[in-house]
Amino acid sequence: xxxxxxxxxxxxxxxxxxxxxxxxxxxxxxxxxxxxxxxxxxxxxxxxxxxxxxxxxxxxxxxxxxxxxxxxxxxxxxxxxxxxxxxxxxxxxxxxxxxxxxxxxxxxxxxxxxxxxxxxxxxxxxxxxxxxxxxxxxxxxxxxxxxxxxxxxxxxxxxxxxxxxxxxxxxxxxxxxxxxxxxxxxxxxxx
Amino acid sequence: xxxxxxxxxxxxxxxxxxxxxxxxxxxxxxxxxxxxxxxxxxxxxxxxxxxxxxxxxxxxxxxxxxxxxxxxxxxxxxxxxxxxxxxxxxxxxxxxxxxxxxxxxxxxxxxxxxxxxxxxxxxxxxxxxxxxxxxxxxxxxxxxxxxxxx
Lengths: 191, 150
What we know:
heterodimer, A: mainly beta, seven-stranded mixed β-sheet, six-stranded mixed β-sheet, 2 helices, 11% helix, 38% strand, B: 150 residues, mainly beta, 0% helix
């Protein structure tokens, strides 16, 4: 079963070794929109007011991402990889970027990324819809991405067909992603 | 038998028929899934450690040793966290997939071998000991049970 989490759900999660020790917590999720998956995490020290760690946690060192913890093998997982902020686009920070379809329709602006916890792929964006005031308490919709991710430049481009799979129901979004991707693949096969 | 069953149980030296302490805490090796030993209260001097293999028996009323020489000072390094004083009992049980499964309430063990047989969680749930991956200061880590989501 596909378990999806929003990037903001991961912030503050403890980084826990298989030995049961918490060695850090997630400060931020580092994501490259042109690659389509999470590159890793920047970290804070554990505890209140503990501040930022200079070490980061690369995706290859992550054993699992769950709703309650990011699991790593042991203490050595931290600081192995240096995570470079991706170049181009918005430097990896897609929050606030516009999502456009290749049909030229603006879907909205990105408020969060949706991650498949199994492999760290970014399978969609949470957006504030373009036709609504994007206030703090505004409605949120979820836009699925194709397997290859979105092309990132001045805006994040998604196929026009993605519009039919947009949902405001996060619980049902995993299924919407699956249906959208199945449709995209069969569409390509038929051409 | 559960760890909570032997809390405060008297430790009896059978060569002199006198009490040499009470069970105060239990240390489990998470890699071998077995009890390493007990720390004692009311023990003579600083001899407040009883290694599992220096113990004679766990009876319903007392834990027995052949002599007071079975006791030693608590090893200063290299011990996993103690179940009670390091708050392993009451700690979060976390799956290796990052899911919180509940709180560790008790540990079931075989009184003959010291092998841990079951982890007892809140909500009447129990996990087989072979699920155990690690006991740390933040969580008890277990292999992901099939019944959980994911």
